[in-house]
Write a structure and sequence with these properties.
- The complex is a heterotrimer of chains A (about 250), B (about 270) and C (about 325).
- Chain A is mainly α and about 250 residues long.
- Chain A contains ten helices and no strands.
- Chain A has two domains: about 35 residues; about 210 residues, MetI-like (MetI-like fold), CATH 1.10.3720.10.
- In chain A, helix 3 crosses helix 9.
- In chain B, helix 4 packs parallel to helix 7, helix 6 crosses helix 7 and helix 7 packs antiparallel against helix 9.
- Helix content of chain B is about 80%, strand content about 0%.
- Classes of the chains: A mainly alpha (about 250), B mainly alpha (about 270), C alpha/beta (about 325).
- Chains in contact: A-B, A-C, B-C.
- The interface between A and C is medium-sized, with 17 and 24 residues.
Chain lengths: ~250, ~270, ~325
Amino acid sequence: MSESTRIAAWRWGIIFAVVAVAESAVRLGWISSFFLAAPTRAAVVLWEQIVHGNALWLTAITLLEIAACLAISTVVGVFAGFLLWRYKLIGGSYEMFLAALFSSPVILAYPIFLVTFGRTSAAVIALSSIFGLIPIMINTKGAFQNVNPILLQVGASMNLTRKQLFRHILVPAVAPTIFSGFRLALTYILKSVLGLEYVAQVGGVGMWLSDAAFMFKVEEVYAGLLGTITLSILFLYLINRSEVLVRK
Amino acid sequence: MNNSRKSRTLIAAQLQTPLGVQALTLLLIIAVWELIGRTGILFAELFPPLIEIMRSLWTYVTTPLILPHLKASLYEVGGALGLAALFGIPLGILWGSRTSWLEIVEPLILYAAVVPKIVIFPVFILFLGIDVHSKLAVGAIAAFFPISLLTIAGMREVKQVYVDVARTAGAGAYQIATRVYLPAIAGQVFTGIRIGMGAAVTGALLAETKVAKAGLGFMIVEYYGQFRIADMYSLLLFIFILAALANWAMKALFARLSPSARASQDAGMYF
Amino acid sequence: MKKRLSAVRQTVRLGLCVLCVLFGVAPSAWSAGARTKIVVVVPHRILFTVALPVYVAQEKGFYKENNIEVDAVFTRGGGENVQAVVSGDAQIGLGTGTLAVISAFVKKAPIKIAAAEITGLDAIWYVQGNTAMRRMEDLAGKKIAYSRPGSSTHMGALAIADQIKAKGLKPVELVSLGGIPEVYTAVRTGQADAGWSVAPFQLDRVEKGELRVVVKGDDLASLREITPRVHFVNTAFAAKNPEVIRGFFRAQQKALDYMFENKTDSAKIWIRRAELKFPESAVLKTWDYYNRAAMNLKPIRGVQATVEDGIRNKFLNQPLSESELKSLIDLSFLP
């Protein structure tokens, strides 16, 4: 058995063990089915919701919100990160504030966003974009800061214009690190969008979880969670593949 | 004339320092805020005068009004962070000590980390009740992920050559652990704890918004429910200042404990 | 080496103690001397019909008279209330949507309805003070807000729509806008014409003339005979401690009587305990929107209509059987 097969087998084994424990806990009555759904039932309900219900439509709403957040975070974050690096005074002035904001519970301000934007996807997008913005800004600044000076010297020795230097040397040099920032931003955005949709009862998958919880449809809640985890697996896989391409 | 030019030059020089820029930014925010609030360009009740917000903040600092809520939240967050570190660091070290274990476990943790913990809060209510412990548990689970993942990242960065050299020099397992691994992973672990603190605060306070009788998160939704927007903003500011102070204190403490530790550049590779 | 081992042992013991303390589950009910302590979940610390009776009963010693001590914990409503009582950590859930309780009950939650909280809808609908709208009929063709599908405010908004339609007026548009603060902002910014609230919320603004009440719950004829919210108990606890539950509801009854006989004192208790920032005059106006009879603890009215509503809104798949209905409601604990 090859190493990768062995690792995959172990991973699936752990997943199966956790699922088996949860399944037994519910079926044997150790945990009330009011609080935890049997994984097999959750999977069946998820399938039913995909085929006959709104799961796909709600997933599309969530994906659109995530895409909007990522677009806003990227455009603003890369530009702001560049400014933080380019103008040392700005970088030095705002770095501490950004670090403080990064570790403070900004999500608790969600009521303000609800009353400002209404109970709509706009509120979710506005707040979640902030979670994506900061890692992109920090990574962009770090990326520019850590460019090997030799590369710049080589460019200068070839008499490249500032524009050429930026396009052919700086951008390829910073792209991998900035991309790492995207990855971080995307995971924060995903978590924030789902959490806000749940708490504010608006949007897509998170709202579905919230409505299902409101109606005590426990199997649907866990079906939604299963769908969420599947979504995150897909996202992380796509990001990893893209990161490999960018680094090439 | 010369004196006024000198003082203008001095002021300009002061403004071109980080402190000067920060002060200018603060003044600009205040000006824009007051402009929006007083002119009614946007819904004015969402932009109460800053003096009202500051007055409310002053009440928290000078009266015992917020104390029972602060006590409840501090217990939850402190307990959550402690518990998360208690499990996250040893498990992170264990999983990170072998490449095969790392490759098995790390993706599973990443997939689970994305799930908003507030959704599984009812399970914690079942096992731990509606008192502070269920909220502590939500905060602990939220903080566990960045702590364990960054510990794993730290273990991953330990160069095998250091371990080999130590072994060659006759170092035992305990000496390798304390003299090679610990100093090498300290930076990442400290970063994980700092980010874990943010996660614990978010997790615990969000859980308080669902069911509680005291706590800062509880009070935020109470004020929101009564549309006491100034009080809500001041409480958010209070939490923000506390979080910033705690972050700064942790950074200073870790710098003292392990001056050679390198802080993670990309502040939380995972979260 | 020995010193180090001893230090390690001490650390482990301390850690275990910390773990025990952290994971120690507080007993949800124990005897404090002669009095039994119970945990009661309340959906809001401000609500007139649930929170105030608890405050009054605590302040006036009505619970003590019945040998019980009540610890009130606040939630955001239906779901959390039910979860807390099902877990056994709370023994009584107050002021929870009848439909939410029935919905949990049919999913085998160990709970049953023990009393009515209010019969008839107590929500109010308001408009901006500078508009010409003064009565329900003026809402024809307008946007009316409710909280979320399946809620009592949704029922209320549907009843308004039906009453306006029955008069041959232009149909209304119903919009789900969430809680009181979001709805207020929506009305003030023109996203909705009429918003919902419950007294005392917004009464201070009504007093100032910024808002105007156009519909009271009592105006909705179809909902006068419906009990939209109930009090419910954990069945296992109730079976073992029926006298405790009876004592609680005796105290509740006394508190409700006191509230309507001593408005000023009750208002003062309310302002202090709920940390209300509304002026006392606005708080006292709350009594204009409630009557004592509507807050009688029994009977539970309109269960069939509630079940039908539940099926319509997909809370329930089918009507309840006779035996389910019998098990669902137990009013034997009431004075």
